[in-house]
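FORM 7B: Structural annotation worksheet

SECTION A. Query
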Amino acid sequence: MHHTTDHSRRQLLCSIAGAGLASMAGTLPFAAHAADPTFPSRPIRMVVAFNPGSGSDMQARVIAQVLSESTGQPVIVDNRAGANGIVAVQSVLNAPADGYTMLFGSNSTFAINAALIRNMPYDPIADFTPLSLISSQYCMVLVPADSPYKTMADLIADARKRPGALNNGAGSPGYNLWSTWLNELTGIKTVNIQYKGGGEVVSALLGKQVDYAVAVISLEMIKSGKLRALAVSGPKRMPSLPGVPTMAEAGVPEFQAFVWTALGVSAKTPQPIVRQLEAAVLKAARSQASLDFLQKQDASPMAGGPEQMRNFQREEIQRWKRIVAANGIELQ
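SECTION B. Predicted structure
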């Protein structure tokens, strides 16, 4: 079952491009619904599930600015970080479902929480109407600069010889799932060490407290020679790190782990307003301002309107639930 999911996931990833975003605009179904000529008539609140100043927060602000210009109304960014995005989710679901409150979330809020949290206070499929996927940022397998592992093959070979001897660092429960998935695909067993964020993982790598990590970090750490990237999880090499192979080139083509962002609204939002928001959000996602920002962040736009986002969400939830169950990962 999950092999089909992996195949369709790779198909979506291979469609990542500005042209892909533009070509999908013609498929929007909003014309079938009568528009509300009065919407929007006041400021829109974009609840962001990240701290101010984070990469995802800055991205949300770019989208908010473009949306404000296209709708003629202020789009106010409201940062509600905490509890793996649940604080932001509850803020949106507790607000009137009138289109004036949107959620800018990630794979945690829209997928991974459903696989990891025992008593989920919300359903990312039933409680939200998707507007659009926004971006993706691929992870890397990282080791200290003077690590004996020069390639993924080196790391995998040693881990196979010594099951349980290698440690890997994870900056969040979602990153733990990535490492578990990589172990599953390569047939290795390593010890996961949980940290409170990406910064702590970088410190652990620099201090050689862990042998490797699957993470998304600032590329300056690699370009400066402080850390070494063995592979990147995207379908093609990163332009800013042309010497780092893809996971497919490194022999693990199924591993396509990345952070993704998306926008959604309460499922109770009236359909005519949803359609107007879809059109505005897709326009903002493929705007030059958004594409320029993503390029500077070494991130990519994700081609996909509401239907693609919903299908993608379902596939992600299915994947992570299977991995949690198969590997006996304890629910939170």
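SECTION C. Observations
The first strand starts at residue 44 and ends at 48. The chain has two domains: 2-136+259-326, 140-232.

SECTION D. Sign-off
Analyst initials: ____
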